[in-house]
Every structure is written in structure tokens, then in C-alpha cells.
Fold this sequence. Notes:
By secondary structure, this protein is mostly beta strands. About 10% of the residues lie in helices and about 55% in strands. The strands form 9 sheets. The chain has a 22-stranded antiparallel β-barrel. Strands 8-14-15-12-13 form a 5-stranded mixed sheet. A 3-stranded mixed sheet has the order 3-7-6, with helices on both faces.
Amino acid sequence: MTPNAFxxxxxxxxxAVARAVLALGLAAQLQYAVAQTVRFDVxxxxxxxxxxxxxxxxxxxxxxxxxxxxxxRAPAVQGPRDVxxxxxxxxAGSGLQGRVQGRTLVxxxxxxxxxxxxxxxxxxxxxxxxxxxxxxxxxxxxPTTASTGLPLTLRETPQSVTVMTRQxxxxxxxxxxxxxxxxxxxxxxxxxxxxxDFQSRGSSxxxxxxxxxxxxxxxxFFSSTLYSLDDMADIDRIEVLKGASGLLxxxxxxxxxxxxxxxxxxxxxxxxxxxxxxSWGNRRAEVxxxxxxxxxGSLRARLVASAAEGDSFRDHEKKSxxxxxxxxxxxxxxxxxxxAGFTYRHRTVDGxxxxxxxxxxxxxxxFVGWQPRSFNTGASWTGYGQDSxxxxxxxxxxxxxxxxxxxxxxxxxVTMDEMRLGHLYDESTAFLNHxxxxxxxxxxxxxxxxxxxxxxGRTHELVAGLGTSHYRGxxxxxxxxxxxxxxxxxxxxxxxxALQQPDFAGWTYGDNRFTRQQTYVYGAGRFHLxxxxxxxxxxxxxxxxxxxxxxxxxxxxxxxxxxxxxxxxLVLDVGRDVSLYGSATSIFEPxxxxxxxxxxxxxEKGVTYEVGAKGEFFDKRLNASISHFWMHTDNTAEETGGTxxxxxxxxxxxxGARRHGFELEMSGQLASGWQAQGxxxxxxxxxxxxxxxxxxxxxxxxxxxxxxxxLRGLMVGAATRWQSAISVSSGSATLGQSxxxxxxxxxxxxxxxxxSVGVNLLNVTDKAYFSGVTNFxxxxxxxxxxxxxxxxxxYDF
Length: 797
């Protein structure tokens, strides 16, 4: 047996004994006729799907730890040969070996010495890798820390968690964050002009990258609106937690959290390049390089670049973006892993209508008339250019036993020289404004410890951490102006393109500043009360400060000390693959919304309760769950339909708001070559504003890959979304969108081991629908995108 290619270090004797017993057990079961001849037809591809194809063609089940295949590719295996030879050919040079155990193909690392089973540990295996890249799967390939900070599988987590994998994003060309969330189970995308809002369980969500919170507040370009346009080329997966997340976030939205997990350098070389052309002149290119920088693989790097530009279905709206991501990983010692990197983004948007949708009914209830889908409330001269630089570093250290420490530092700086605003405000008025010298900065430092302890004859897992984060946003805001359309010689139906750019040289500007700061400690434990029963409890204490200085609008100053957010969950295994669970968790969220008298609302506070069942099937290749949730909140903001003294939408604070509903979800492999992810969600709320969001929602995305026959190398798939009716009302006027379906199709053909071509059709039926309806006192709507096509080509080196 060949030596292990990784640097090795001693492991405890009990591990060696366990491996020896396991090896004897496996040897006793190697009675399957591995020498029988099978005609294999496995194309060159990432290792995980190659193994799945080989196992299927041999009539075997497949069992292996997904992290073993991370970053590895497999050569083509074609023609008649026995299973053992096929396995050796497929795994050659990978540091892995395959065994047939009964009717199951088992893949594992090559041991140092098969006779003595020498003690082995992998260099700098500080964390268990949960990367989804290369797995070919639509479900989580490893544990997630999204709910409690503890590394738990989806079934072990007592809250609803959805993972959008790299394969899912690649198959359906989900290139921006908004694209991904459109197809994410349990999350609603609400559009208001160019603004995009993500909602789960009737509330907004928090945004994170690698578990680090992306703070943003105050204005359109500091909000999730711009994060929603970020290119996802540097992201391995997106983990979406539904429900409150106070244990890890401290303060924030009750709806949940969207955590974007970056790609990491790989131990084996891999590279790809792709290009695409689409409707409205859209085009995009991407390059992804990764691999070791030295012979032993202890130093690794990754570089990802993408560029995109094109027009929109809206008149005179254009956009472009460039992204460059770089990361390095170094095994400083067998127990120490250091990683660092950056993400640079540049984006321009021209001809945008900002947050202003299309007017349907005036404040007096008069119907204005429908506008075409290409109608743009924004002027052609509006827009902005934005630069963003994110820096991160992480040090992971294995301590005694299985304890690990992780120190993570992050900084993000977003700048914008100017933003030009001009759009149709209502049937008789245009809104004009100009912002300059905008800066948005985030700093975060977090240290956590994880490990296990033996108490009362059982092993329990613990996590504890502390950290601080600081956000500051600055900008010079012009004194906005509402100008009668009659003075400009413009009629509403002409669209914003008829508006002329004013001379901003003589404008007066006010210095606006927004700051957020929190310092926190948290801890949680998973306690094994009995063989099938586990209790997870934890809590977080947060010191929080917020200060807004806005001379044209409002001033706000708030401090909270020692705010405690508890967490509790219970998981009961009722079978090998099925668990029942229940959880309760809280969160609080400061608010900037004002009443009609100009008073700022007090922070919203609430608790989420959830019960359900989860299962893992087909050797953990398929996850399924059903959950029921209910949320109680106080000081919840609800639009009144009126305005503040400054003219913004006004809110009232609702005490005892109630939201409840249930979710059905599944993701993963239904059969060899067949992947699927889908959900049905029902949300109910006591808030009258909830009618603007669907009560019922269904999403399903599925693909099938042909592994043999005339169609070998072809992948076909479809994604469909349905939602129930939405509406808003003001006085006697009501604006609504009836229930509707949308259908997307995808296909990709693997020409040879390197080249593949694909096509994606969005909104195949060209359904005309509102992607959002809004009550600003007057009633507005935003059109959804018409039918579009995207053709792409990819080369894998």
C-alpha cells in the first residue's frame, strides 16, 4: 500500500485500535464479486459525481465522507473491466482507496501501513470541511453552524436550515445573491423598483459572509439592495437559517439569516473558465483557479474573477460588475491552519428608478393606468459607481483532545463617489437628489472555542465565543427636491427618461453619519441526556450602541447593555434516520422607522418557537423536514399609509404581533443522477401589511443527468415557483396580484471531459406578473422580468 501523501502525526491509541477493528470487519465482508466485468462509461469530472456514477454502473451503494472528494477530479473510466481495476483507475493519485463491503462501495484515505495501521492524522485538519463544490449534490455535504455555532448536520439542528449548494447554483445559472434567493425554499423576494428585500416567515433577514455579519443601515445603497446584486462566483454555498438567530447575531431581523460561505483553496489543482451571453445584451465571463503552491500541498491558494455587463428589460437601465477574489491557506503546523484573503467588487448602475415603483392609484384613489413592463420611473442620467473591498483572516488551532479555537477578523469598505437620483414620484411630481462621498465600513473580530467534555458517563459538545463588531456609514446628502412635472414639461406616462438632469453645482449638502457597535459573549452546549435525546441550550449577552446623525431627516441615539438572548432546543431520535425536535430562540432589532409625528420606534423584540421532524435517507444523500413555527413580537413596525414630517412612509408600533405557519422541505438525490430541492411554505400574520407578501409559496428545482446510452453527458432540469395572491389597499383602492406560476428550464451537455455547453430559459411562459406591490399612501407595483435566455460554455482544465 502506498504511503499517505499528507503530513502525518500521532493519534491516540484508541483510534488505532478502532481502525484495526474496522479493518477486520471490512475484510470479513469483502465477498462481493469484485472481479466481475462491468462495462463502465464514467466521464472525467469532479470526484464525487464520478464515484456516484461508477457505483451506480456497478450496481453498488456508495459510502464516503464528502470532504474526501473536496477539490479532487477524476479521470474518465471507460470500457469493460472489473470493479477493483475501475476503482484503482478512478482514484489513482488521489490518496484515496476504494473497498467493496457487501453491496456498498466504501472510499477512504490510504492508510500508512495496512499491516500495522500506523497512527495518522491529516495536517491542519482544524475543521471538518463542509464544502459543497464537487459533490454534485443539492443538499448539505457536511455540518452547519448556522443555528447554534456547533457543527451539526441538518437533522441534528433544531431549526429549519436550507443549503443552496454550488451544484444547485451552477445548474440554474444563479449568478447573483438575488438569483439564488429567488429559488431558495422558504424565502420571499420582494421587489420595490430597484430595491430588493428578502423575507422569511414574515420578517426581513440578516446577511452574513463566513458567519460574519454584514451591517448596513440608513439608506438605499447601504442596504441589502446592493448586496443582493453581488456576484456569487466566489461563494461555495449559501446557508439560510429560518427564524430568530439571536444566539449568533445578537440583534437583527427575526426572519432568519443568509450566510454566504466563501470558496476555499484546494489541495489538488483545478481550474475552469466560462462565458455566457443572454437577453438584453447581457454577457458574463468567469475564471476560477485553485491548487497547491508547494510540492507537499501545505500552502494553497485560490483566485476567482468574474465580469458581467448588459442592459435590462426596463428602458435605459444598464449595469456592469467586476469581482476579484483571492485566498491563501497555510498549514503552519500539523494542528494550525491560517487563511486570509480579499474580495474586490466594482459595480455601476445607470438609468435606475431607485426604490420608486410604478404608480397605479393616486393618494385620492384615482387609477392612473397600467404601464408596460419596460416602463422605468428613473431618468437615464441616474445611477452610481461603487467599489467594495473586503479583507478577512482566520487562524484555526487544534488544542488538546478534540478542542479547537478559531480567531476570525474581517473588514469591509464600500465607497461611492456619487449617486444621482431622479425619478417620477407620483402622477404630478418628480423627485431629484444627489449623494456624494459615501463610505460604508465594517470591522469584526470573533474568537470561539469548540470541543467536547465527558460528564455523567456521556460525551457532550460545547462552544463559547466573544467578539466585537463596528459599523460606520458616512455620506453627503443633498437637500432633496420635489418638482412639479408640469414645470419640467413631462407627463407621467412618458416615463423617467423624459426627465432632464439638473445642475447639482449649487446644491446644499448635509453630513449624514450612521454608527452601530456591539460587543458580545455567547455560549452553547449539546448535552446527550440519553442515547436518543439531546438538549441544546445557550445564550448571548450583547452591549449595543446606535447613533444616527441626519440633518435633513432625523437624529437617533440608543444604547442597550447586557441584552440577553437565550436559546433552547431538544432533539429526539425516533429511528436511525429520523428525529423530532423543538426549539425556542429570541432576538431584538433596533428600528429607524418613524411615526407620523416623527418619533422613532422602540426596538422590536420577539421569540420564535418551532417544532418538527427531520430525516436523512439514501445513505444521507437526501434530507427532508417538516416544521411548524410561531413568532410573538412587540414594537413591530407596520406602515400606516401616511407619511412622516419629512415625507417618508410612516409606521406604528404593534404590540403582540403574531406570525405562524409551517414548512415542508426536501433536498438531495432521489435516484442515481436525479437531484431535487423543493418546499411548500405557509405563512400567516396578524399584521395587515402581511397581505403584500404571499401566504402560500411552493418552489421546486430538479435536474437529471444521463450516465449512459445515447444521451450520456446530457443534463436537463426545471425550476418552478408558485405563490398565492398579494395585495395592498389605501382608502377605497386595492392593488393586487393573483396567484401565479413561473417556470425556468436548464440543459447542459458535456461534449468531452473538458468542454460543456448549456442553455437556461427563465420565465418560459413569459408570464406578466408583479414582483412586488407597495403602499406609499398611493399604490405602486413593480413588474417581474419577462422571458429571457442565457447560453453558456465552460472549459475545465
